[in-house]
Amino acid sequence: MDKxxxxxxxEEITTLxxxxxxxxxxxxxxxxxRKHQYIVQEGEYVDREYWVVKGCLRASFFDYQGKEHIxxxxxxxxxxxxxxxxxxxxxxxxxxxxxxxxxxxxxxxxNREKLSAEMHKMESFWARxxxxxxxxxxxxxxxxxxxxxxxxxxxxxxxxPKLFQRIPxxxxxxxxGVARETLSRLY
Length: 187
Prior knowledge:
InterPro entries: cNMP-bd_dom, cNMP-bd_dom_sf, RmlC-like_jellyroll. This is cAMP-binding protein. Keywords: Coiled coil. Residues 32-115 form the Cyclic nucleotide-binding domain. By secondary structure, the protein is an alpha+beta fold. The protein has a domain at 5-118: Jelly Rolls (Sandwich). The chain has helices at residues 5-10, 18-25, 83-88, 109-118, 120-146, 149-159, 161-166, 169-176, 180-186, and strands at 28-33, 38-40, 48-54, 57-62, 68-74, 79-80, 95-98, 102-108. A 4-stranded antiparallel sheet has the order 1-8-3-6. Strands 2-7-4-5 form a 4-stranded antiparallel sheet. Strand 4 and strand 5 form a beta hairpin. The chain is globular. The model has no long low-confidence stretch (mean pLDDT 94).
């Protein structure tokens, strides 16, 4: 029997019994969203963190001149939300929308805190995921500051080749911090 995809994801970090996973799963909800629908909108309060079962999303914001800046993409097995809004109970500074039809699991802040308090395994899981996310963010900022556009493009393509098949070039260009024309010359 195949394991639930969330269980496989959690067990990349810690093992679970059937009973533990069944209990964990009771703290999650499921939502289906169509392409172009938002799960987080700038200016709203955010009480959910999402895990992607199927689909692709982007987290972005628009600057004062109306230019879009993409902070993150999320595909299967990735987590996404506005983390400042989610953790600090403030209004979202970014929006998260579906680039494809999506199936998502979500957990509320309260359920995440409850699971972390009740189960050391889940507290450790989220601590590890947070560390890995911080490392990825640090590497992204360093790349934006020191790498050429070509190097950033090559790194992204090497790390996430499927992303280039699923995301329009103009969005990849925004994520990389380059003009669409620059990206076209690079690949």
